[in-house]
Amino acid sequence: MPLIGAFIADSYLGRFLAVGLGSIITFMGMVLLWLTAMIPQARPPPCNPATERCKSATTAQVAILISSLALMSIGNGGLQCSMAFGADQVNRKDNPNNQRALEIFFNWYYASSAISVIIAFTGIVYIQDHLGWKLGFGVPAALMFFSTFFFFLASPLYVKNKPNSSLFTGFVRVIVAAFKNRKLRLPPKNSVRMYHHMKDSEFVIPTDKLRFLNKACFIRSPEKDIASDGSATDPWSLCTTDQVEELKAIIKVIPLWSTSILMSLNIGGSFGLLQAKSLNRHITRNFEVPAGSLTVIMIFTIFIWIALYDRVVIPLASKLYGKPVRISAKNRMGLGLFFSFIHLVTAAIVETIRRRRAIGEGYGNDPHAMLNMSAMWLFPQLCLGGIAEAFNVIGQNEFYYTEFPKTMSSIASSLFGLGMAVGYVISSFLFSVVERVTSKGGKDGWISDNINKGRFDKYYWLIAIVSGVNILYYLVCSWAYGATADIESKVSEENDSNEEELPLIDFKNEGSYDKDRLVKKS
């Protein structure tokens, strides 16, 4: 849904309407779900404790439940554009500190998301468990109402970018036009008059990367190809430079985007909940932390690290260098993958120690036994996982937003979610393959219902190896991609800003001059 919503937002509705309609539809779904708790006829009756029999839900009751979930899913497709819409509000090309402003926005957008997850996992769950489902569903619905109300209330203050024509149709037109003009020879030097562009085009000359697609916007005969109003006489034979660059942006980013799939695989391949259940989670004699609540440590780490990075690390580094410094979005993506690798190695080591302790205490055949081992052993891997996510996810979102044309900002904001979904699917597939292969011949496989008998430590090591290979793959993709928009803009602005990038990893001369971005309008 997020990707579909992004296409609709960029092509037809615009991001403001997409977020607004998404909010309304989500609110409708939440109200419908709340009504299933409020109206007895909208849900099956309670189970009979004496006979332990439960009456099945009727077709109408199932339809109401599915409708509420469907509405929330559809609405979420529009709400996913909120990050791109928010970035539009702070994105100012004439601001010399524009990149830093965007970085701060993406940092705190994700930090606020982390806080909302903590509230949902603690406050809302507490209400549902202790005060009932009526209030448990009613509070989120009320919060959604106020969120939607205040969003529309501030409507006059927003920057509202107009939607582009159908992006998908534009992609197909570029491919068709480039194929039709495949025998054309492009001149060695480019000129504005050679390529078709509109007055408000972001690009007046196409970039040199993926140059074969430039044939789609090359003007062979101005008299035949261009109409009196400046449009192409045949849009399937001549496209605009913006249409060409939009397709290039998708093609260029696919390799780097694919590295995020493995990042999601690392998250999906974690068995921290199973580990936590077998460890001592008591803080006092009478208070035990629920196993599922330990994941809040990772979310807290995300928030704390974002705050430290934005308010301590970057200001301190700037003070040491004597000028503003920052870590580029692409470097932060790489750092996230590195910390994810360390997270998996740590998890494998902890699981090896935990399993050895379980067998040593005689609990090899008892998966429900609580070991004489503190759950705080999971603290390092949870913290490392939070730091990895903070670096990689925020870096990804900022990278896609700054690298894609403005007409594709909603699609840019949906790519991380798409990568995560694909990663979880691959994680499930890998899980099944490992279970089937390691349990051949009636042997106890790595994956077992008994965590003490299984070899989850080996599974962690396997994913860690895959993660290490993914880092090498990322380095190659990063080198092939070249300099990013924020680095290139610093060079083309002729030192209008003294901002300097922290010297972490120099992927293909990040600070080098690249003429591609100079074809964009300032």
TrEMBL record:
Compartment list: Membrane
GO molecular-function term, one example from the UniProt record: transmembrane transporter activity
Membrane spanning residue stretches: 12-35, 62-87, 107-127, 139-159, 294-314, 334-353, 374-395, 415-438, 459-481
Domain of life: Eukaryota
Keywords assigned by UniProt, alphabetized: Membrane, Transmembrane, Transmembrane helix
Main location: membrane
Keyword Transmembrane helix included in the entry's annotation: yes
Record GO biological process: oligopeptide transport
Bilayer disposition of the protein: Multi-pass membrane protein
Entry-linked Gene3D superfamilies: MFS general substrate transporter like domains
Gene Ontology CC: one annotated term: membrane
PROSITE patterns attached to this UniProt entry: PTR2_1
InterPro entries: MFS_trans_sf (IPR036259), POT_fam (IPR000109), PTR2_symporter_CS (IPR018456)
Family from the record: Belongs to the major facilitator superfamily. Proton-dependent oligopeptide transporter (POT/PTR) (TC 2.A.17) family.
Annotated protein name in UniProt: Major facilitator superfamily (MFS) profile domain-containing protein
